[in-house]
Design a protein that fits this description.
The protein is mainly alpha-helical. The chain is built from six helices and five strands. Helix 3 (81-93) crosses helix 5 (125-139). The chain is elongated.
Amino acid sequence: MSRDKLGNYYIEDSFRFRKTANVVLENIIKTAKTDGIDEVEVVLARDTGAGGAAANIFYTRTLAEQGITVRSTKMSGHSGKLNRFLPFASVAEAGCVYLVKGDWNEPFLAELENFIPNNRNQKDDQVDATSDAFNMIAKSIQVPTFVLPNYSQQSIVSKINA
């Protein structure tokens, strides 16, 4: 996901699979390298509890050693999924979200459209990933660049009056 200067969001790709932790890590590394290590930032959800913290540290260290920039976002409980998703849904409903055309569009949209909070039997990994990516990008501060005028020069007014 990315954002342009006008505040529009672009979902450029979605890669969904369920595998072992090692295969997940390999795919994150492969995807980050394909997308461009200098161009992307990987956002990892940090599950609550000691196990989630340990896994997050392991993933962060492994990815960082591959030259990949990583940021973590704290996961709230299952009931917090809706609250995390609503800001993205609001922006999407306003027409400020665009998808790059691809084979992944249909299953991605189906999962987001069928999202029902508190349904533990439902696959909602892409909902979580979308929420986390949006919230991370939306909250990032972009400081504009500007040049301060040089006030150390002598005033031209004194030259005109002379």
